[in-house]
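Hi U.,

Before I forget, here's the chain from the pilot set. I'm dumping it here mostly so it's searchable later in email.
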Amino acid sequence: MYKERIIEEMKEVFKVIPFGIEHTLKVLKNAEDIMKGENIDDEEKELISIVAILHDIGAVEAQNKYGSIEGHYQEKEGPAVAREILEKLGYNKHIDRICFIIGNHHTPFKIDGIDFQIQWEADLLENLSVMDIKKEQQEIKKCIQQNFKTETGKRIAYERYVLE
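Structure:
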């Protein structure tokens, strides 16, 4: 119920940078695929899905304030935007946790739970798509080994990006 409404709010925010919508929906799909393989319970799925939908929500505000959508600016601006959207929709579960992950989603040493790990992997799966798969196999393998902790995330990453 909330998921669709949060997606609509995300699309409204990203009207000015539409590539954000496409990226977000791909990250959400990745998160859903990882959650399915990791047998995540329904309440945790809801939280992770919301984080996936809102993880880059600070990009527009970052662009407006700093002229950049760099990750550290997204982390700085994202939690307030996410909180505003969730409160507007009357969603009041796990808001602090959702905002913590959004506010640190480019900072891997802050990963402190399976919810955050799945978001990290879901986003990274999408971000790996910009690499040259034929020329950067060593870098891709190293990235997977260093960043992916869930069995499902590792499997998806190897299937998509490792040639063998």
